[in-house]
Automatic annotation (TrEMBL):
The chain crosses the membrane at residues 107-127. GO terms for cellular component: plasma membrane. Residues 28-133 form the CcmH/CycL/Ccl2/NrfF N-terminal domain. InterPro entries: C-type_cytochrome_biogenesis, CcmH/CycL/Ccl2/NrfF_N, CcmH/CycL/NrfF/Ccl2_sf. CDD domains: CcmH_N (cd16378). It comes from Candidatus Thermofonsia Clade 3 bacterium. Possible subunit of a heme lyase. The keyword Signal applies. GO terms for molecular function: metal ion binding. This is Cytochrome c-type biogenesis protein.
Amino acid sequence: MLRFAVHTLRLISLLFVVVCLVGRPIIAQVPAPDEATYRIAKQLNCPTCAGRNLADCPTETCAQWKAEIKAQLDMGKSAQEVLDYFQARFGPTVLQEPPKTGVTAPLWAAPVGAALVFLLAAGAVMLRAARHNPLTDVAAADPAEDPFVSALEEEVRRNG
């Protein structure tokens, strides 16, 4: 029985390796998208799918936009010029990452500012609590005055 299991395991492993090796040339034949077009499309929003970037969207509109990007790059425009063209034509919402200038600059600083305010407030609360309620030494407390100890001793005496 053990020989059968070992033989079966070897056969499955060999089959797995063969499938992986045969599949590699098939995967390699898929044409790679134009890298520059892909990088620019990754920075633009799909006009029809909310929150999806242009590079990953399969719609016809996105295919047309990607063709437009490729055409502009083929004409010699830089990536920034292509992005500027789409932003001028469709507004700043076409960009996946809004510009860090003008009106949006405070929006980029807001999370950092909020985190700093939170940390300062938490520090102030902890400092105030430490000043008003200093820690007492637990070992110095008198066990005879502790109501829990008294109740426990009383229960032990009753239950014997």
